[in-house]
Amino acid sequence: MKDLSQERIEKSPNFVKDKAVGAMFGFIKGGFVNKQNTSMMISGDDLVHLQEEMAKNLGLKSQNLGENSQNSTKFSNENSQKLNEKSVNLNSTQNSQIPHKNSPQSKFQAILSLLNTPKVRISSIKSDLTQMQEASFVWFGHSSYLIKLGGKHILIDPILQDNAAPVPFIIKAFNGADIYTPYELPNIDFLIITHNHYDHLSKKTIKALAHKVDKAIVPLGVGKYLKAWGVDESDITELDWDEVAKFDDFVFYCLTTRHFSGRGLFDQNKSLWASFLLEHKGKRLFFGGDSGYGEHFRDFGERFESIDIAFLENGQFNEQWAFIHAFPHQSLQIARELHAKAIMSVHNAKFKLAPHAWNEPLRQLHTLYTQDSWDFELLMPQIGQITPLWEKFELKPWWN
Question: 3-state class of 12 per DSSP?
Fold first, then answer.
């Protein structure tokens, strides 16, 4: 299996190099961070540029944009101003609990707040995963979900009965959010891993599932983990950005995201992070992985023209790392730029990886969606609920 050079990684138009020190956040999110080369935290000057960039993308007037603004897409629809105002209002409660962005304590207070798992209980449903109907999915919380399509089971970023950190006593799953074990899953025809962070790639889960996996599709540099944890090397397909893997009538496109990778002190950005698009008999499913907002979503929309359902991250956002995770209002804009017919909100409701409340991403997204008219459907099922892929979904605010 192949590691990647830093030069290769920096060819990505979505690589964000920043000089800020993010040692604690890196430890939680992906091992330790190389202080000389981190792509996850935002310095004070870059934060100002980011806010101006976001304002421009949301249809607001802005001056003196930073250099990163050229990698963004303008929010061009006529409701952009209204959506931004609503988003600002929704964020007021969250932001009041965090020091001002210019405060020297702001970064580390945001990061240290992640060390304690809130004492909450998540409402969830225990379903028989062996009885899933055709064209359906089950969400396991955060970014883990199982899809049944064309008689095949497709599993994305499974974290089951495990925490999301390199040590066992932090970033534990919320009560009620981790109700499935790997042993309850059916045989897996396609395992998809989007990147190597602990909240997307679990050694414990992969080792338990390895004998059930027929094919694994991962970004370059990620296959070595699966091989070490029991998946046969001949069953692992590593893809570079913009490469394609075909298995009969299942076609997987490996696409870029605006993120980073790493699990330890010396492996920062030595493997790829990716999103994936699956084509099967005229249907297109987008698995977004982790990504900050960027022009790549518009490019995907133009390239693929229409996406039937997009699983998009919505959660773990904060202005201190806003380049690598999308905010709720950005998730709606991303859906529009992808030309998605439906979106499923993921990356929430299981782990605390940002200072906001566990249900804040769901509450904000639902409020913004229901207050305006959108040309796509929003899916927000409970953890464990078997949900049809193509049928109309009734929105029920279970997170309240």
Answer: coil
